[in-house]
Specification:
With about 290 residues, the chain is an alpha/beta fold. The chain contains 11 helices and 14 strands. The strands form 4 sheets. Strands 1, 4, 5, 6, 8, 11, 12 and 13 form an 8-stranded mixed β-sheet that branches. A two-stranded antiparallel sheet has the order 2-3. A two-stranded antiparallel sheet has the order 7-14. Helix 10 packs antiparallel against helix 11. It is globular. The protein starts with a strand and ends with a helix. Belongs to the glucose-1-phosphate thymidylyltransferase family. Keywords: Magnesium, Metal-binding, Nucleotidyltransferase, Transferase. It catalyses: dTTP + alpha-D-glucose 1-phosphate + H(+) = dTDP-alpha-D-glucose + diphosphate.
Length: about 290
């Protein structure tokens, strides 16, 4: 399975802080936002990852992340010229995906919880599609899934004005290779975007959509607003300081996933100088592991 991180968009809900910098490069406590969704794909065991950015932000992402080889990965980059919808990611990434299956994660989404690694790795050989549902107070901001009494999916709607449930669909999706063809068939919605909910409906109509409800032990943050960005920062700060472990540390994830060895981690730690992040990398190779 390959992975795509969609890190485009204009981030207008975060203006003025995103006028000059990509939303996905903003800090969430002690690291760039993009580290969190990247670590999720790496936790799933995915090494081949495509970053889809705006034209003017791409060089900044390349400067930050490089080609991935230092992490034992293969990073590639592509451009989404306009925010034409999430489904367009599979059209832009068609050559990258090839004949493989693909996971898509949004660059402003953060996931954390017990059992997350096992959950992610259980989806990498998916036949059909696998998405998730998470209860929220403001479902009208998201794709919404409606269940019947037997927890069977009844409907999926994109940002409905009157949501039929409080189950939002987080920005993490797993698909087989059919998704590329489905994406090509998607027509722009009334919002002028190729909606990923339309792809999910296609899989649902084919009887090939799996929807898992994230348990209370899982946490999900969509950092698209100032309030949610602040909530995510506070969440990461409290957890890290209490547990003395880092969330979204891509070098540690690479090491634990056997992408790189201890010596590589030690070498990479020098990049971060005397920062808290750099000191943590030194500690994990000298003390923890």
């Amino acid at each position: 399975m390959k992975g795509i991180i969609l890190a485009g968009g204009s981030g207008t809900r975060l203006y003025p802080i995103t006028i000059a910098v990509s939303k996905q490069l903003l800090p969430v406590y002690d690291k760039p936002m993009i580290y969190y969704p990247l670590s999720v794909l790496m936790l799933a065991g995915i090494k081949d990852i495509l970053f889809i950015t705006t034209p003017h932000d791409q060089e900044a992402f390349k400067k930050l992340l490089g080609d991935g080889s230092e992490l034992g990965c293969n990073f590639q980059y592509a451009v989404q010229h306009k925010p034409n919808g999430l489904a367009e990611a599979f059209i832009i990434g068609e050559d990258f995906i090839g004949r493989d299956k693909v996971a898509l994660v949004l660059g402003d989404n953060i996931f954390y919880g017990n059992g997350l690694v096992n959950l992610l790795r259980s989806k990498t050989d998916i036949t059909g599609a696998s998405i998730f549902a998470y209860t929220v107070k403001d479902p009208e901001r998201y794709g919404v899934v409606e269940f019947d009494e037997a927890r069977k999916v009844k409907s999926i709607e994109e940002k409905p004005s009157k949501p039929k449930s409080k189950f939002a669909i987080p920005g993490l999706y797993f698909y087989d290779n059919k998704v590329v063809q489905y994406a090509k068939e998607v027509k722009p919605s009334d919002r002028g975007e190729k909606e990923i909910s339309t792809i999910n409906k296609m899989y649902l109509d084919d009887g090939m959509l799996e929807v898992g409800v994230m348990t209370r032990g899982m946490s999900w943050f969509d950092t698209g607003t100032v309030e949610s960005l602040d909530d995510a920062t506070e969440f990461i700060r409290v957890l890290q300081n209490r547990q003395s472990t880092m969330i979204g540390c891509i070098e540690e994830v690479a090491y634990l996933s056997n992408f790189i060895d201890k010596e590589r981690v030690k070498k990479l730690s020098k990049r971060y100088g005397k920062s808290k992040y750099g000191n943590y990398l030194k500690e994990i190779v000298e003390i923890i592991y």
